[in-house]
Design brief:
By secondary structure, this protein is an alpha/beta fold. It contains 13 helices and eleven strands.
């Protein structure tokens, strides 16, 4: 576009939690470069409340029904640019014949295909946030040298941790036990075995779908201080517990990306997915980010997303995790 400063920009990202949190640096970069610019956002209804943690947004549109209905809500001609950070069929349909000037981030699906099909790793791994930000360079010529990654927890989602959990802030380990697909999660028996090696109070986090797993963990570890907040909090409430934890133990999931916005040490257990997809914790400094994976498995990664059961049946990417190493490094990061 021309060298003039944009007055209105629309950002598109329909899902999911982690992907949307990773768009926050883009909004921050636009706001830093153009403080008076109006930034609007279009997403799914389920993620509208998540955007309360993103500073700098004005209006939020939600995909309540069809793409056609959403198009009718948006005056595309009023925007200097549309930044498509989803780049799928629906966002293309949304902007088709709209007259908008659209910039779409490079998805590089061919690289993901090479990685999952033939295990060919990219020569220069690139975080998805860097690809998001490259869209701003394409649109406005902006070069973002020090992007910010912030998650602003709304005041009404902050609470007394001691009153709610019985634990002091920074004296517990937060464990995000869930993930959308089972091949991204440790099996429950390994979660239990790992937690037995961690001599700190544990706060379990996850959605309602993880409550059965949480109950199995609590039943098996009755001699340990295990507090389950699974299915009881908003995403911002879970973020508050992560922010105030001594460390975050997590799978490849949305709470991992939220945790990367805070100073808490992150201990990330990879299953079928790999960091080469560009979805590892986004931090300029990686000293307090510990990542665990079973290397040299010919079947890994089997998918850029995941499965509900291991396609090979053995689930070695999780079954062969070094639990002693994970617990030792977690303890070292707290002490």
């Amino acid at each position: 576009m021309s060298g003039r400063s944009p007055k209105k920009i629309l950002v598109l990202r329909f899902s999911s939690i982690g992907d949307i949190v990773l768009t926050f640096p883009v909004v921050a970069a636009i706001k830093a470069a153009y403080p008076s610019c109006q930034i609007d956002y279009a997403t799914k209804p389920a993620f509208r409340s998540l955007l309360a943690a993103c500073a700098g947004l004005n209006n939020i549109y939600t995909l309540e029904g069809s793409i056609r209905q959403l198009r009718q809500q948006i005056d595309f001609q009023a925007y200097d640019a549309v930044i498509d950070l989803h780049h799928n069929l629906r966002t293309r349909l949304l902007t088709f014949l709209s007259g908008a000037t659209v910039y779409r981030y490079p998805k590089n699906n061919w690289r993901k295909w090479l990685l999952t099909s033939f295990k060919v790793k990219p020569s220069k791994p690139e975080h998805v946030v860097d690809r998001y930000l490259s869209t701003l360079q394409q649109a406005f010529g902006l070069e973002i040298l020090a992007p910010t990654n912030q998650y602003l927890i709304p005041a009404n989602d902050q609470f007394s941790i001691q009153e709610v959990t019985g634990l002091e802030p920074h004296k517990y380990v937060a464990f995000a036990i869930g993930a959308q697909f089972a091949t991204k999660r440790l099996p429950t028996d390994l979660m239990i075995e790992l937690l037995q090696k961690i001599p700190y109070p544990i706060v379990l986090l996850g959605g309602k779908e993880d409550q059965e797993t949480a109950q199995k963990i609590k039943t098996a570890l009755q001699d340990q201080k295990i507090v389950s907040m699974v299915g009881q909090l908003s995403i911002h409430g879970s973020a508050w517990l992560v922010k105030n934890a001594a460390a975050l133990l997590t799978h490849d999931t949305g709470l991992m990306h939220i945790g990367a916005c805070f100073e808490v040490p992150i201990h990330l257990i990879w299953g079928n997915t790999v960091k080469e997809f560009g979805m590892y914790p986004y931090r300029l400094e990686q000293e307090n980010c510990f990542q665990y994976e079973v290397e040299n498995l010919k079947c890994r990664p089997c998918s850029k997303i995941g499965f509900q059961t291991c396609p090979k049946g053995h689930f070695n990417c999780m079954r062969q995790q070094n639990l002693e190493q994970i617990s030792s490094q977690l303890k070292a990061s707290i002490n």
